[in-house]
Amino acid sequence: MIRIGMLTSGGDCQALNAAMRGVAKTLFNGKEQVEIYGFLDGYKGLIYGKFRMLTGFDFSGILTKGGTILGSSRMPFKLMRDPDENGLNKVEAMKQNYHKLQLDCLVILGGNGTHKTANLLKEEGLNVITLPKTIDNDLWGTDMTFGFQSAVNIATDAIDNIHTTAASHGRVFIVEVMGHKVGFLTLNAGMAGGADVILIPEIPYDINKVVEAIKERHDRGSRFTILAVAEGAISKEDAKLSKKEYKKKLESYTYPSVSYEIADQIAKKSGMEVRVTVPGHTQRGGTPCPYDRVFASRLGSEAGKLILKGEYGFMVGYKNREIVKVPLEEVAGKLKMVDPNSSIVKEAKMLGISFGD
Ligand code: F6P
């Protein structure tokens, strides 16, 4: 008999259900009897013992379903060692619930924060296998995360739809794409949508260079310009500030987000009409694209295989077109970022895309 617990933690994304289905189907198709306990709302379920037993029926018909059948929540890693409001030791509570159910392994689906806690649980002696989810594709140790390609599709659709109205009105349009720390989503959606300017956290921008790029287009006869701007895009001046100074600046910040500040600056410096569109959480919603369905199913299936072999302590990832197992300690606490000198950035620049640098 194999007993596993499953949970989805952090911001949701497409194909979480497909991945869990992949794990479950592989286990149910194995020779051993399997019990799967689904913890509700991420680590909260494991801490407070909120779970339900999952059968084959729970995994049926969920391949194409967005969100997560288990629910999710954000539980900051830095607070994991702090007692909760009632004095409960969260780490000990998770260990107790794991042992009470006599689990052989926890399957944890999540992004960066989730992996730090997963590694902590490994260090505390629990058997853990993780799967890399996030629309940001910023997880160390894997070339791809599931959710990313689906989000690229949605952000690209947003840019595509803006194109026609931008052209009709001869306006500058900013489409704000998700990603506070990392710009893979903006870079890919921006290139796929034919954005003229792409601003990402890894390449701080100079607003005068951005305005120059817009004016050059205008002088060449283009009636409109489209900017794909990451939530975490940062100006060269702000990038020079210390963490403390930047935090202070944000305290008195009056714009809803960086895109509105950029829009204001462009309007003032160029005299052009500027509009901002924020697709926001729609980028995490809806049905997973076919790539993510296949990818998440493959990762899930490989996770199931590791469990059947009793190999624990790994994230199942994707490197150089191969499914790989990466030790959790190599993943936890590291961020994968866009390399400003990578070929994709160089190619984008050769296409005439401005990064405002
Ligand atoms: O981590 C995924 C992500 O969607 C980021 O792209 C975004 O910045 C953040 O989560 C939004 O978080 P929340 O859903 O908590 O507002």
Reported for the largest beta sheet, the result is: 7 strands, mixed
> How much of the residues is beta strand, in percent?
15-25%
Q: Give every kind of bound small molecule, once each.
A: 6-O-phosphono-beta-D-fructofuranose
* Number of DSSP helical runs: 13
- pLDDT under 50 segments (min length 5)? none
- How much is the average pLDDT? 97
Termini, distance in Å?
A: 58 Å
**Residues in helices, as a percent range:** 40-55%
The radius of gyration over CA amounts to 22 Å
Order of helices and strands: EHEHEHEHEHEHEHEHHHEHEEHH
Decide which structural class fits the backbone. alpha/beta
Q: What is the global morphology? A: elongated
Q: Record the strand order, biggest sheet.
A: 3-2-1-4-5-10-11
How many runs of DSSP E, i.e. beta strands? Answer: 11
Task: Put the structure in a nutshell.
This protein is α/β, with parallel strands linked by helices. It contains 13 helices and eleven strands. The radius of gyration is 22 Å and the shape is elongated.
Defining key terms:
357 residues, alpha/beta, four-stranded parallel beta sheet, 11 strands, elongated, binds 6-O-phosphono-beta-D-fructofuranose
Could you explain the architecture of this structure?
The protein is α/β, with parallel strands linked by helices and 357 residues long. 41% of the residues lie in helices and 17% in strands. The strands form two sheets. Strands 3-2-1-4-5-10-11 form a seven-stranded mixed β-sheet, with helices on both faces. Helix 1 packs parallel to helix 11, helix 5 (148-169) crosses helix 6 (184-192) and helix 7 (207-219) crosses helix 10. The longest helix is centred in the middle third of the chain and has 22 residues, at 148-169. The radius of gyration is 22 Å and the shape is elongated. The protein starts with a strand and ends in a 7-residue tail after the last helix. The mean pLDDT is 97. 6-O-phosphono-beta-D-fructofuranose (F6P) is lined by residues 11, 74, 111, 134-136, 178-180, 231, 284. 6-O-phosphono-beta-D-fructofuranose binds next to loops.
